[in-house]
Amino acid sequence: MSHHARNPVHPLDLEWVSQVRVNLPAINRRAATHATRRSVKMEWQSAWYLRAVSCIDLTTLSGDDTQANVKRLCFKAKSPIQQDILKDLELDGLKLTTGCVCVYPNRVREAVEFLQGTNIPVASVAAGFPAGQTPMKQRLAEIEEAVKAGAREIDIVITRQHVLQSNWIELYEETKAMRDACGDAHLKTILATGELGSLTNVYKASLVCMMAGSDFIKTSTGKEGVNATLPVAITMLRAIREFYEQTGFKVGFKPAGGIRKAKDAMTWLAIMKEELGDDWTKPDLFRIGASSLLTDVERQLYHQATGKYAASHSLPMA
Predict the structure, then answer these.
(1) Which residues are paired to 156 by β-bridges?
(2) What pTM does this model have?
(3) What tens digit of pLDDT does each residue of 32-55 get?
(4) Mean pLDDT for the stretch of residues 74-86
(5) What rounded mean pLDDT belongs to the chain?
(6) Angle at 310 between CA 306 and CA 315, to 5 degrees
(7) CB 3 within 8 A of CB 284
């Protein structure tokens, strides 16, 4: 997954956390101006669409998931864009996959089997996803079982109460325990930002989870009422930037929930580039949690190749 040194566990620095101040009007202005301007010129759009595909965590987290739809998802992850589209774009030799396939823990083993022979990692949600309201012993066991089944990335949820009550020591110890349970698997920590009350809380929680060894911080489960928004993203990205400046370690970012259109993916890639630089536009430091986004990106690439728009049903997930 990573081409940089893995973020280790750092001592909890409560003084650093206590000094956090977020300028809400400035964050909102930055988000508003970014959302209204064209981020990528037409001649570069195909390249950016393809980069977005490589950063997608292709996800299925439904109660009716079966072996069959996990298999379809894995097939699509291996060949996310139809070969005739790539050929028309003169990219038929391009080896393109999605960033990973993300499933529930009891689907990990079959996803690993379907992706055998590729380098596409399987990610599993765990630790009482999506609410995190299960006992800690059970949450850690779920992580360990997913890793044992072959998951190379674990998307965990934090206890929101710790943030809302400013229990930073408890949040740190919880996240650190989950990092330990992951072993060599990378830890993607979901903050559930729509339930944290304020952007100051989002920034503080981001710092604490990075101090506890998170490899990625992630906006949302996709199940909250408010998911990935630009003000939240800017807040988290600036926490990542400050953390890197202070420690020298790069932590990844993953927005999730409500990202369905190709133009949204462009917006997210552009803000990553502007706030953090090119390294954070690649899959080892940037992922997009999505299920339906890939279909629209493929539709836009079809338009780039042919000048026509394909109906969604002609670009199936598998």
Answers:
(1) 126, 189
(2) 0.94
(3) 998 777 667 767 889 999 999 999
(4) 95
(5) 93
(6) 115
(7) yes
Q: Which residues contact 124 (CB under 8 A, 6 or more apart)?
A: 102, 103, 104, 105, 107, 108, 146, 149, 151, 153, 154, 155
What's the rounded Cα separation, in Å, for the pair 288 and 233? 12
pLDDT score recorded for residue 2: 54
Q: What is the pLDDT of residue 225?
A: 79
- On whether the CB atoms of residues 87 and 127 are closer than 8 A, the answer is no
d(CA 159, CA 181): 17
Which tokens sit at 299? 């539709």
Active site residues: 155, 218, 254
Which of 276, 257, 38 minimizes the C-alpha distance to 130? 257
Alpha helices in the chain (DSSP H): 14-18, 24-36, 45-54, 67-78, 83-88, 108-114, 136-149, 160-164, 168-182, 199-211, 230-247, 262-276, 293-306
**Side chain identity at residue 122, one-letter code:** V
Residues 6+ apart with CB under 8 A from 306: 88
